[in-house]
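Researcher: We plan to redesign the surface later, but first we want a full-length starting point. Tokens attached.
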């Protein structure tokens, strides 16, 4: 097996095969480290406001301003050109895209930065054209093309929807696959949630758009077409959020509104962007703490501990339920389920490598990596 690059909780890691074992090597992102250092310096300069009895009374007390894990999540990772990686990163405002060499942490090349756009999953073809899921507001995402040689930027999808996981076809380089879900609205015009994800294919030369797999009872995500025209994707049951209110909800609503507004907005932010709105407060270190009971994956709130108990008899039990399936549809053939409990995957000449949320499975081998995403073979 070659080396695999992946994201785990917003950080880049490399799976390094060595003899009969595999170890996980963190890859430092210099852009993120410089940003964290700058924020820590700012926090230290403001430390007098965040310590002492007065700060405790005002609710601004922070035990150690230099120790906070400043959030600069790397939101997309893919194999780039010339044996380099390409990654996207978001800050408090805006984001950027960079090339990085997996063997040298200091070698990073700026591609694009924008204070008004946030960047997410991305992929690059052999011509150096980058396809990226991007957001100019907090909920909608669309697919943009960026040419790494001249930095040109063109958004090619539109609408009130969330377009994610762009992937270039290996069979036909002008074809780009991605998954998308439209926003649903109630009778009063309020946003009620996302519809089922569908897989689309766009011809980047002609602009022709096709719906390849329409979501309904199931939703489909993470498409990938290999050189033979076989289409891989993740299939999972679509669970529609239930609406409506009971009488008791109306009676108690005035007492819940203020507390609910912040929580509701944060829930939508984590579901549709993967990021929390709670970036500051009396103690950001507490806000950064993740609950082991519930995890957001692709906008789905998973009951991690419950799923782990249900998967306890598996050789390598994970957080993802068994009805999240990796499926392949080969030309002229029917769908075939390759494996279950799939959160993310990559296809290699030796077979499929996938994550179930707690382990990365590579045939008979497995390595424990928490919430591994954007798996890609780099050598």
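Model: Full-length starting sequence:
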């Amino acid at each position: 097996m070659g080396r695999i690059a992946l994201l785990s909780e917003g950080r880049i890691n490399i799976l390094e095969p060595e003899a009969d074992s595999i170890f996980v090597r963190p890859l430092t992102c210099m852009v993120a480290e410089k940003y964290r250092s700058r924020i820590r310096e700012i926090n230290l300069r403001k430390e007098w406001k965040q310590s002492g009895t007065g700060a405790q009374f005002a609710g601004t007390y922070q035990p150690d301003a230099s120790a906070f894990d400043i959030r600069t999540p790397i939101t997309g990772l893919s194999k780039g050109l010339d044996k380099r990686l390409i990654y996207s990163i978001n800050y408090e405002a805006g984001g950027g895209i960079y090339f990085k060499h997996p063997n040298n942490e200091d070698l990073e090349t700026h591609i694009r930065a924008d204070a008004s756009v946030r960047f997410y999953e991305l992929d690059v073809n052999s011509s150096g054209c980058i396809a990226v899921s991007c957001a100019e507001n907090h909920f909608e995402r669309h697919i943009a093309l960026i040419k790494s040689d001249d930095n040109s930027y063109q958004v090619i999808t539109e609408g009130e929807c969330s377009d994610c996981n762009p992937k270039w076809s290996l069979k036909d380089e002008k074809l780009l696959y991605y998954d998308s879900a439209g926003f649903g609205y109630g009778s009063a015009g309020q946003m009620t949630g996302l519809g089922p994800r569908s897989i689309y294919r766009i011809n980047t030369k002609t602009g022709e758009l096709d719906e390849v797999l329409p979501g309904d009872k199931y939703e489909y995500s993470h498409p990938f077409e290999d050189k033979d025209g076989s289409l891989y994707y993740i299939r999972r049951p679509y669970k529609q959020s239930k609406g409506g209110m009971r009488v008791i909800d109306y009676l108690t609503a005035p007492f819940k509104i203020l507390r609910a507004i912040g929580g509701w907005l944060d829930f939508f932010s984590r579901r549709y962007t993967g990021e929390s709105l709670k970036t500051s407060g009396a103690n950001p270190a507490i806000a950064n703490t993740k609950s082991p009971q519930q995890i957001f994956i692709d906008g789905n709130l998973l009951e991690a501990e419950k799923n782990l108990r249900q998967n306890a008899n598996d050789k390598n039990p994970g957080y993802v339920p068994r009805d999240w399936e990796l499926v392949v549809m080969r030309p002229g053939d029917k769908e075939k389920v390759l494996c279950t409990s799939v959160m993310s995957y990559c296809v290699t000449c030796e077979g499929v490598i996938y994550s179930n949320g707690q382990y990365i499975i590579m045939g008979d081998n497995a390595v424990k990596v928490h919430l591994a995403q954007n798996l890609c073979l780099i050598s």
